[in-house]
Amino acid sequence: MDAVGGVPKAADVRGQISDANSSLHAVARETARLWRRHHLDYDQTKHVVEHTRRSLGLRAPQERRRTVDRLDRHEVERLIEHAYRHSAPYGLMVKTLFYTGARVSEFVNLRVADLHLALDPPQVYIAHAKGGSDGYVPIRPSLAQELRTHLAGQTGGYLFESNRHDRYTPRAVQRVVKAAAQRAGIEKHVTPHRLRASVATLLLDAGMPLDQVQKFLRHKQIATTQIYAQTSLRGVSENYLKAFERR
Q1: In a domain, 3, yes or no
Q2: Domain housing 39
Q3: pLDDT class for 59, splitting at 50, 70, 90?
Q4: pTM above 0.90?
Q5: Which residues pair with 115 in a beta bridge?
Q6: Are residues 91 and 49 in the same domain?
Q7: Looking at residue 94, which CATH number applies to its domain?
C-alpha cells in the first residue's frame, strides 16, 4: 500500500470501494442465475434470503436512536454553579450557552451588537447559524443584567473574549463545559450540544408547544424538534397519572 504512516491514499480507498462493488455485482449476477434456474417467484426469493441470513447469523443493524441524552434541571444547576466556582466569566459563559440554546459554533460568534437587552423580554440575535437559521431568542431578565455587568460598558467586539481579546474557539468552550461537569461530579458526557438538548426538553416539560420550541431552536424542520419531544417525559407522566386518578 502506497501510504504515509500506514494511512491509505484516497485513490487506494476508492479502489477498495470499487473492488467491493464489483464483488457485490458478481454475487448478484450469480444469485440471479440460480434463482432463474429454479424458477423462484417473489415470495420464494424472500424465503431464500431470510433463510440464508439465519444460516449466516446475520442481523439487521440497530435502528438509530430517536431520542437525545440530556441533563435534568438539577444537573444543569450544578453544572452552572461549578463553572462559576472556577471563575465568574466561565460561569456566565455556561449559563448563556444553556439559556440561549445556541450551538457552540453560533455561541463563539456572539457579538455585543447581537444583544438587545432593553427589550421586554431581552433578546439575543443568533447569527452565523447552521443552515442559515439566524434568529432572535429570548433570555431571562436576570441573565440580561449579568451580561450588562460583564460588559461593563463595552460596546463592540465579541460577547466573550479570550485573554488575547479574540473570540473563544468551539474547542475551548467544549473544554470549559467538560471541566465544569467533572467538578460537579456529573458522570454523563456533557457537551455544548447536550446543553442545547437539555434546554429544549426542559422547555417541553414546562409545557411550551412544540412549534415554539422549534422557533427557539431555529430548526428548519419540526421533525428535528420532534426528537427532543420524544425525550420529554413530563407530559407523558402527568397524563398517565391523571388517567388513573379519574373516577
Answers
A1: no
A2: 15-56
A3: confident
A4: no
A5: 124
A6: no
A7: 1.10.443.10
Which residue type, as a one-letter code, is found at position 114?
Answer: D
The answer to whether residue 235 scores a pLDDT higher than 70 is: no
Are residues 45 and 102 located together in one domain of the fold? no
- DSSP at 136: E
Q: Are residue 50 and residue 138 in the same domain, yes or no?
A: no
Is the pLDDT at 150 greater than 70? The verdict is yes
Nearest alpha-carbon partner for 173 in 193, 198, 155: 193
Single out the residue of 81, 73, 99 nearest to residue 206, CA to CA.
73
Cα-to-chain-centroid distance, residue 201: 12
Q: Which residue has the higher pLDDT, 66 or 131?
A: 131
Measured CA to CA, the distance from residue 90 to residue 97 in angstroms comes to 11
DSSP states of 100-142: HT--HHHHTT-BGGGEETTSSS-EEEE-S-GGG--EEEE--HH
Q: What's the confidence (pLDDT) of residue 130?
A: 72
In sequence order, which ranges of 58-122 are alpha helices (DSSP H)? Answer: 73-86, 88-100, 104-107
Q: How many domains does the chain have?
A: 2
Known catalytic residues are: 103, 130, 193, 196, 219, 228
Give, for 46, the enclosing helix (H) or strand (E): helix 42-56
Lowest mean pLDDT among 84-88, 146-150, 162-166, 240-244: 240-244
